[in-house]
Amino acid sequence: MKMNLLMTSVLSTSLFLVACGGGSSDDGPAPTNPSGTPTNNIQNPVVKVEAYTSTNLGSVAAESSILTYKMLGQSGQEVQATSLVFTPNTPPPVGGWPIVVWAHGTTGVADACAPSKAALADSTKDLISKLLAAGYVVVAPDYEGLGTPGIHPFLNVKSEAFSITDAVVAARNYLSQRNLLTSKKWLTIGHSQGGHAALGAAQYASRAQLDYKGTVAVAPASNLGFILVAGEQSVANATLDKKISMYAQLDTYTALVTAGIRNTQPAFNYSQVFTSQVSSIAAQAETICSGPLGQAFGAGMTKYATDHNGTLDGYTRTQPNFMAVQLVKTFLDKDSQPLQVKVTTPIIIYQGVADTTVPKVATDILISNATVVGTKINSYVTGNWDHGTVMSSNVDNIVGNVQSLLAAQ
Predict the structure, then answer these.
(1) Do 150 and 109 meet the contact criterion of CB atoms below 8 Å apart?
(2) Model confidence at 40: pLDDT above 80
(3) Is the same domain home to 67 and 82?
(4) Can you give the pLDDT at residue 409?
(5) Which DSSP helix (H) or strand (E) runs through 379?
(6) Cα 217 from Cα 348, distance rounded (Å)
(7) Residue 231: what pLDDT?
(8) For the CA atoms of 409, 158, 4, 16, what is the dihedral angle to 10 degrees?
(9) Into how many domains does the chain fold?
(10) Domain span at residue 259?
(11) Rg (CA), the chain
């Protein structure tokens, strides 16, 4: 979803960002050392296969399926998840088709928000079509809890990463049962939340016990705590309409975070994060998608302002210092922050200068913090793109990146 961040200067609050994003994780060593990540030993990972018919890729796809598979969930137990799987309409090359994972952006946490339940966005269809034409299997996970039991752990690095690694293992298992050969080479592309997930896949790639070739992260989400703080500051003196738009979108992210924490902490309550004026709206995060949820937050504020002489004075949204609540703090400081440990596989990042959803300063500091722990960013591509056009304008470039990464020895 869009966040119209009216940032004139957010560098002044970058110390908060460094505090959220810096330091090392307790999750173990670099992903090249399997001892830091549990190996995927799930038996019979494929649960069910259905046809995916919401988007027609017939000219380039031999098969478009929805795969229900087993993955290691955030709880530490096996859970079921779903993923799209597309195969090229050309025979596998010698050694088999490489696998490219597409990691999607924010849709929400409710089951209805699973991308496999809808048609592909235009830029996603363009990318997947070109990857198939280039001879790659495409795997597109919904992520844990989207369309399957449990709440989606929104922006949880490990959950997203295992959603990806375990989808790749399951897809290879499914295709091998049909005598369709895939190689051990694979990589991940992601946009927004998906860019965040792609960086998580790089950190935990060893779980799949395959040959991970790299990551292309487009406007990757990071440093959410900083974005929430900077967003509030950016509209302090703005018009009512701009305030409502910003607050609604910040509250949407906060509600999705709260819902995601409840995956393993069901006693955690929206009232611990939101005031009584809005907690009932926030709780709708578990039943509606991110767009309608933002509209509900906005409608509540608009009604209040209409009834109070065009002002939000007296309208309370989040609890004071809610980011200091231990579960929230742990999420912001550790569980949601990618690249906290060294990653040795190639990383390419695209970032729009005009992006007001994931502002460039957040990505700059993400990269700076990653460099401190020894991660090399192989390419950082910037341009005058916003959050949408950074993806749609670079599809051909991204396909070229994929070809180069998979061709490398």
Answers:
(1) no
(2) yes
(3) yes
(4) 75
(5) strand 379-383
(6) 6
(7) 87
(8) -100
(9) 2
(10) 224-333
(11) 21
